[in-house]
Write a structure and sequence with these properties.
The complex is a heterodimer of chains A (290) and B (292). The longest helix of chain A has 35 residues. Chain A is globular. Chain A contains 14 helices and no strands. Chain A starts with a helix and ends with a helix. Chain A is mainly α and 290 residues long. In chain B, β1 and β2 form a beta hairpin. In chain B, α4 packs across α7, α7 runs antiparallel to α11 and α12 runs antiparallel to α13. Classes of the chains: A mainly alpha (290), B mainly alpha (292). Chains A and B meet through α2, α5, α7, α8 and α10 of A and α1, α3, α4, α5 and α7 of B.
Chain lengths: 290, 292
Amino acid sequence: MLKMRKRKEKAGGHYTVKSRTATIIIYTILTIGAVIVLLPLLWLFVTSLKSQSDLATNTWGLPKEWVFSNYIKAWTGSQIPKYMINSIRATVLSIIITVVLVTPVSYVLARFKFRGKGMLYFFFIAGMMIPIHSTVIPIYTMVGKLDAYNNLEVLSMIYGAFRIPISIFILEGFMSSIPKEMEECALIDGCKITGIFFKIILPLSKDGIITIAILTVLSSWNELLVSMLLISDPSKKTLPIGLMGFITEYNSEYTQLAAGIMIAMIPTIIFYAAAQEKIEKGMIAGAIKG
Amino acid sequence: MKITRKMRGLILLFILPALIIYLVWVIYPIIQAVFMSTLKWETLNTTKFVGLDNYKSVFSNQLFIKSLKNSIIFMVATTVIQIILGFIYGYLVYLQPKGYRIYKVLFFIPTVLPSVAVGFIWCYIYSPGMGVLKPIMEAMGLGQHYMSPLASPALALMAVIVAQIWNQVGIQIILFNSGFMNISNEVIEGARLDGATGFRMLWSMIIPLSWDVVKMVIILQTIGALRAFDLIYVMTGGGPNHSTEVLPVHLFVNAFKEFNMGNANVIAVVILILAMMITVVMRKVMERDSLY
């Protein structure tokens, strides 16, 4: 019994299926799934290393020769590097905007009592139900009036705005669980609210902030619709729209296309590999809380 | 903490930036959309208030009905299949066979890829020239007149659904897996000591205990499917012959290809109301408390 207590794993902590047949079935199903997931990607990778003629004659085999020039051509001959930089700018900016806007509000909602607090909270949270697609037309018109088309900063602000509901939802939860004693001590020591906010609350909410940052990356990096509508200047395009243009441009040169797409996918895969556990936690926080 | 007079200004400072940005870019646009749905554009710059006329014309429009139907099929198909697959794989990974971590990471990779990439990959798979689907069909004796399913009005929606499921199911797998892991160890051990194993464990313990998670995943997935735009747009643009034109795509086409703003905003409002309705209705319908 003591040994079981020492294990920190949650339920399902160790593999308990006894029957060999069951195990074989389980692995089969899992492997089939893995194959279905990987095959399209592997195949894209293989295609990207072939020459056009190799592709035509030897469509599904391994490349006869590994042609790296596809990658070089795709990188230098297209705007993909520029698109990536734009995407990075927009994403980073939207994270900053979201975090700066949301942390103070979440703090107030989590820690203070005042009339109308429930309503305010609900007002923010209800925004989670508003699909951004329903607002694109007015947003398009508004941005036009501000003469702010092709403006990555405005795009980032829009992304940030739509992250507000769910970010407050998550962060308020995090902040509510910070022990009140810490604040009370600080108050007694003569600390003012801003002091408490910066010195106590923010550091303790680091996990929550990372979570909302990651969720913002996931939603902004691959965002297509709004960026497509608001940005037409090729030098400002973000990766998703840029990729679309790239595909039309290199229409039948599949090997080039494959290389270009692989390049576009690499940042996401690296980001995912690095942040994978945090991403998982973030998604759960976003979905299951409450 | 209670707010004292002195604190008021500061508290306001903490709240206002978020509130203002939220009001300007989220709330105001949605109100605008509702308002604009009651207008008819006589010329590019003048509008006339026509009340619910736009609604009448949209609802009697065949294309709108078709896009509504497409959306429903899309939502139901993706949700049902993703929930089932997500549950199964989430559970298998939860059992933690050797190497389960690798499987977990793998399954989520399609979800982080840009939809343009996913769209391209699947268009390619379906293509008659280089795609793998054709030889598979030929091997099954069905490859006679192979045409990319994306070009056939009858099959295009299904083809897109498959791509969408490939892209998104990782989310369900992870969510279910976490849901299972959240079931307290003691309850499981207790059941095990009582003799519950394998199927019995699954049926009488895990399923009822993860009902909350299932509810949440279904709602999230359904609303997500309602809003699906990126992948579909990239793969088919709504064609062929409007067969993959789900509501968001229909909105896009109306607004930015046909410049029919009044109608487009009606569709926008419809999407909004559907999203709200689904959330509310599904919450109520699934109000059964978890059975413990």
